[in-house]
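Tutorial handout. Part one gives the primary structure; part two gives the three-dimensional structure as tokens.
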Amino acid sequence: MKKEEIKAIACAAIDSKSSELIAFGKERTACPELGYAEHKTSAAVKEKLVELGVKDITTTALTGLKGWIKGGQKTEKAPSVMLMGELDAVISPLHPMADPITGAAHTCGHDAQLAVLAGCAAGIAAISQHLYGNVCIAAVPSEEYIQIEHREEMRRAGKIGWLGGKQQMIAEGALDDIDIAMMVHGETNAPAPRVQTGGTSLGFIGKKIRFIGRESHAARPWEGINALNAANLAISAIHSLRETFRSEDNIRVHPIITKGGDLVSTVPADVRMETHVRAATPKAMAETNARVNNAIKGCADALGVTVEITDIPGYYPLMQNKELGQLFTANTETAHPGIITEDGNPFAGSTDMGDISWLIPSIHPSISGFAGALHSADFGVEDDNLAFILPAKALVMTTIDLLADNAEEALGVINKYPRNTKEMYAQLWAEISK
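Part two.
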């Protein structure tokens, strides 16, 4: 059977379940959970994947899932393609669908990704007998790099080794048998239906800073050492560094104070700050991080405050595979004639898909269908087809391109871009964040 015929069958299978997939996505919207605690979400996704024919589902990275739809054609080398969706929400307590206790809300579109993942399972299951390779369906936890203190406690307790879910999957070996990885992120406020491929995102180093002064009554501040003043001075010093940042490095440093003191009537002696040091390259990440550390230390020393700085591996810059992106764009145009296509747009945020893209050929395109600002109270689905259905069709059609015809497309990409090892990956992070 020709590839186009196989694609037509797969897309028809997705269309036949479109109402069900949209309803599943909206159910996920109503049940937001934070990273490494997506227990209800994970259980619901597993139930849906089993229903759609995904086999051998195992748990990875605490709440993540990894299951298989095996290809039906015999071949000496059977590549494995992983299709992913993310489980977690962010903290956005003003969102109308926010959890009243945790403040969790799906304001980044991961709820739609899970409906897309289910659509991928439906489409692949309908045509798996024609594939010369295997498809891994993976629900990934904890993409949002939040709740740093809590996750650091989990790491100290031995529950996790990495703060990002895809990073944790890498460490656990869940990517060892995967050759190619693909997922789709939602785009918001697009002027018209649009797909963007080949874009980059920044990598970053996470930072926790603790300023330790000396308490005194606020009426006698000369008897204390004000840690909050040191924190404020450090933020100003970081601002003063900005004019020295090279434009091509696309550097972003955005500190927040997470604890400003204990009592308004006491000179603050325990002040906490968090920030990310983002940049386009690992070299720029490391260099900027060292300069930010020097600025923080200098400000603390100037005021007689002790400072503790903890650097934490963040995410690696995203490097999308060109060949995979071209296939995805072509399939999106086929599934949605007239859609606007763009290539290579940079994104100043970060994603742990960057870490996977360093290991194996990967893509992380975006498709419109959402309105409102990301991570904000007004974010939501604007177009059900663009948000829930089209991404599933594009991913499945691209998977067919890769794994039909003796998997020649997949093997060509794999041979052209040999994988890096997770040991090299861990060493890389050790060097960047030392």
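Part three, for discussion. The CA atoms of residues 361 and 416 lie 9 Å apart. The mean pLDDT is 96.
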